Amino acid sequence: MGRILRVFDFDDTLAKSVAYIYVKHKDGKETTLSPSQYAKYKPKRGDEFDFRDFNSMLNNPQVIKKNFKLLQQMLKNPNKKVTILTARALGFPIRKFFKDEYGLDVYPVTLASNNPKDKADWIEKHISKGYTDIAFMDDSLKNVRAVQQLQRKYPDVRIKSVLAVEHLTSSQKKKLIENHIEELSKTYL
């Protein structure tokens, strides 16, 4: 039997916190984006991103219950490597939050990058280390797709890449499904 890896994103997958991405536009104006808005944002020429809220202690963090319970379940099994893979630059605030609030000893890996390829590359490195049963959960469709692409390259590895939608409202879920169907129809029609 191969090695088992379970990977969770943090922001808007395991927890929500008050944190914004600040975008300074070419014209000098600054706007703010929530993590879910940022995941869908298409950068414009001259945009500069400031992630200062993500480089400090968590502000009013609240777990997303369904996903958090899954994390707790996974952590109970010593045969599974469980990791929080985050675009944040600092892991300590995540580790401290779970330890102080829930008594959990979690292992956050920080990428300091929002590039979906970086998450896929991290998982691919673990495939090369012998992991053959991988589950990945993230709120970003781009990240989920990037990890799922590894299945083509490694057909003998079980890769389950799941979009976290528990933090979305019913209308947001409906819109997400409609957009996904529209994208699929463009690809296959």
Low-confidence stretches: none
Q: Treating each run of at least 4 consecutive H or I residues as one helix, how many helices?
A: 7
Q: Record the strand order, biggest sheet.
A: 8-7-1-9-10
- Percent helix: 25-40%
Name of the CATH architecture of the largest domain:
3-Layer(aba) Sandwich
CATH topology-level name of the largest domain: Rossmann fold
User: What would you call the structural class?
Assistant: alpha/beta
Mind telling me the C-alpha Rg?
17 Å
The CA-CA distance between the termini, in Å, is: 40 Å
Please characterize this protein's 3D structure.
The chain has 189 residues and is of the alpha/beta class. It has two domains: 142 residues, 3-Layer(aba) Sandwich (Rossmann fold), CATH 3.40.50; 35 residues. Helices cover 38% and strands 24% of the residues. It is built from seven helices and ten strands. The strands form three sheets. The chain has a five-stranded parallel beta sheet with strand order 8-7-1-9-10, with helices on both faces. The protein is globular and about 55 Å long. The mean pLDDT is 90.
